[in-house]
User: Fold these one by one.
Assistant:
Number 1:
Amino acid sequence: MLSRNYGCLLLLAAVSGFVLQGCGETKSKVQCPPKEQVLEAVRNFLPPYLSAGTIELDPVAGDSGNAVKVNFKVEVSPKEDLCQVSHSMEGTPRLTMLRVVQAVGSKSSLYGSVAATRMVDKWTLDALQVQISPGYFGQLRAAFSGNSYVEGTAEAKAAIEQQAENARQAAKAARAAAEAAAIKQKADDEAAALKKKTDDEQAERDEKKRKADEERAEKDKKEREAKAKADFDRKKAEAEAVAKKLEEERQAKKEAERQRLILATVPGASYLGTLVDEKDKRQRVRLVFTEQKGALVRAEASNPDHPPWKQRFTGELIFDAEPARDGDVVYSIKMSAETRERMRDRGDVFHYFFLSSDCHLQLGVTEEGLAGKAKTGGSGLQVTLQSEGGAPGAASQAGTGEVSAQALLNLGDSYRQNKLLDKALIQYHKLVEKYPDTSAARSAKERIAEIERESAGNRK
């Protein structure tokens, strides 16, 4: 079988299966295969449009006595004219002009070599190599596109003339189209001028009507706007009055809740109630607040039935707390156990409440006292406490003036911490006026002086 690649400078072919007897005549003393066998191998290698004529051989000794390399020179000629692209001609259609590079019957020399192996009196050829320039022989006419023509032929001349005629017809058609377009443009211009005149006259009438309508609409609009503004101002004033009243009520309620929270947690405020677990088991509890500094509070819980059971809590007051998701109670007191010891032996939930560090309280002020929940030992408790002095804060109100004065001082401090200085001054002045001989009154005077100095510094 032969392998071909006509686009390469060096073409390789494998030639096998040609086994002939005898030997051709050569000038060399090295034996070589017959010329007819080598010529037949070359013919099988060449493309079908090339024919091989006479051949000359030049054998060269190989590595062994039975193998030789045979150089050859063969005369080849094309069976048809072979062409290459000369140039292209733009137009309709686009033409490709070809030139003949190898005329039919023209002769050329082709050099190459082949490996030959002899076995007794039979030769086997292999590894045929041929040296050939790329595109040297050109291509058949049929290999080019349909609009390709050989230069100088009648077919080429006819195609060029047809291309020129197509250009003339296209130019003629373009001139006719331009003339028709000019005529149409003139007619369109005249129609447009007439329409413009008619439109301008109509536009003038429409403009007069529009201005009259605008003047009338503007007058109506001003009247409506005046009426709407009067209605809006009236409703706005009413809404602002309602909003102001609601805000005053909200602030008053917020102020009352703040005071109520402060008074409910003053030192000495005592509450007695019950703890209820998830199984409705109950345990009595007493909660006494021992310290209050602004939003910081401390309290002590004890079990009246088991006096050794005691727990100290530290926490804060949440003045702007929102109602809890599980009810209407506002958890405005949040505290955690102070002890750092954890129970080694697991007791019930009440043991954890009184004796373990793992205990947290959330309470809110109610009409009767305090209510909320506790989380301890991974379980929850419901907490209900009644004030032992009546309503929340009643014990402090009914107690000594020092306790009540301290409650007002704490309330003022909470306002001051939240930058509500006007409200803080109101509480401090109220304290000084109502309980002038208490230590809390002396502290209130100092705070009043501090606020006045800070305000004076800010004005500078």
Number 2:
Amino acid sequence: MVKSQREYNNQGLPDSLQCVKKLEAAGFTRAQAEAQAETFLTILKELVTKKDLKETIRETKSELTQEIKAVEFKLSQEIKAVDSKLSQEIKAVDFKVNQEIKVIEFKIEVLRRDLKIWFGGSLASLVLVLSGITTFLAHLIH
């Protein structure tokens, strides 16, 4: 059965006068009908309505949306800070690696120079020894 608008007040609750009239029509005394209607309406006021639920859901969604945005912003800031710190650390490591590479390259050049000197000295010594042997053999033959 569809209820008419005048059977409800502006809070969406049944009209107390209409409740009393219906209870009287059902055989209740005026005092009984008023007590029943008052009790019934007091209970209904404490119940959660669909409108209440929708409003609570809307408010909760709004609060959650704000919280999510705040968390996203905070995470974004933290990610930027970590990214900046990592970039600085990578640059520091890169600098150290480049310094180590330069030290190693220098040591390689020193070793290369030392090898040339050693090889050149060995070659000169070998030439002197061969020259000495040649001279010695030449004296033996003559």
